[in-house]
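User: My instructor asked us to take a sequence, write out its structure as tokens, and then describe one feature of it. I'm not sure where to start. Here is the sequence I was given:
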Amino acid sequence: MNRGSSECISVIRERGPGDEEKVFRVINEAARAYEGVIPEDCYHRPYMSMEELRQEMKTITFYGYWKNYELVGVMGIQTFTDVALIRHSYVLPEHQRKGIGSTLLNHLLRIASTARVLVGTWRDAAWAIRFYRKHGFKLLSDSDGLLRRYWSIPERQIQTSVVLGRTLEKS
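Assistant: Let's start with the prediction itself. The structure tokens for your sequence are:
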């Protein structure tokens, strides 16, 4: 790329071995949006500790959206035999509302190996619910049961969260 060029390079790729700190930064900077929105006893800084992220990386495949070699968005996918879960969907605040979350979500929906895809989010995170609804997800009435079955989260988070689902056309 020429230094005087305004060309932008954007890439989606699976998290690599040297990306852990970058993923940690994106999640925790973007999660500041939850402060004052979700129950106070559920919000803390950092929102996700490095140890928790390392545990999540054992079962979740994270993808990143890189813009001009900077990680600006992350989203994970966790696959079970009957469903795929969209997990930890975050875009840096200064890069939000530019299609990055949609691009990441569409990428994960294309690679999902199951027809049924679920996503959990905080009940009071109205912007997140709107985002997933815009992409064809519907609020599910059995959120508590689904959260208990597929997520390993505290009871308090189950009580204050919802699950949205979408069925994909798989050939």
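For the description part of your assignment, you could build on this observation: Residues 10-167 form a domain with the Aminopeptidase fold (CATH 3.40.630.30). Try explaining in your own words what that tells you about the chain.
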